[in-house]
Design the sequence.
């Protein structure tokens, strides 16, 4: 019978039971695991929504601040007459209110045209130039619009019409009219 040498099996060291982790170590591991999961979820969201067409959000439509129009002082007037007219009309809508469907409603609120008409104080040339600049500003943003009243009456709130009036005042000032 052949002689074989038996080699003893290697001895394994008895491993010590794992040391208990401190609270800070456990929180660090959980934080790392959650960070990985959140990053995976963000990538999955981007992949799942990449095909959805979106339009940029205008922060003026999203961010709203409480207005206290009676406490707001009128802004410094623009030096040009049409820009000053549009700015006064904008301030009138802020303080007196905006309406749709009428020049002036029962509470005294006005539409865009009503505010410009009131602030022009009978100067029809100034009023028509103000309406022209306002229509230019509206058409730049919204394309082909028939008239200021039809633009005004499309909206349920005055936020966008009043913003367009403010932008028109800036446009008139830039044009020095």
Sequence:
């Amino acid at each position: 019978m052949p002689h074989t040498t038996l080699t003893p099996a290697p001895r394994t060291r008895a491993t010590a039971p794992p040391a208990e982790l401190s609270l800070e170590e456990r929180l660090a591991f959980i934080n790392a695991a959650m960070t990985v999961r959140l990053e995976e979820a963000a990538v999955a969201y981007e992949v799942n929504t990449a095909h959805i067409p979106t339009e940029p959000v205008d922060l003026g439509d999203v961010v709203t601040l409480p207005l206290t129009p009676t406490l707001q002082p009128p802004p410094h007037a623009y030096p040009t007459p049409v820009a000053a007219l549009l700015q006064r009309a904008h301030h009138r809508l802020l303080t007196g209110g905006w309406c749709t469907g009428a020049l002036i409603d029962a509470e005294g609120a006005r539409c865009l045209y009503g505010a410009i008409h009131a602030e022009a104080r009978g100067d029809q040339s100034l009023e028509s130039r103000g309406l022209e600049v306002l229509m230019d500003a509206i058409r730049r943003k919204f394309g082909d619009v028939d008239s200021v009243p039809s633009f005004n009456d499309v909206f349920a709130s005055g936020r966008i019409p009043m913003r367009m009036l403010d932008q028109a005042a800036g446009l008139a000032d830039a044009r020095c009219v």
Q: What stands out?
A: Residues 22-54 form one domain. Helices lie at 23-49, 59-62, 81-96, 112-120, 124-142, 148-153, 159-175. The chain has seven helices and no strands.
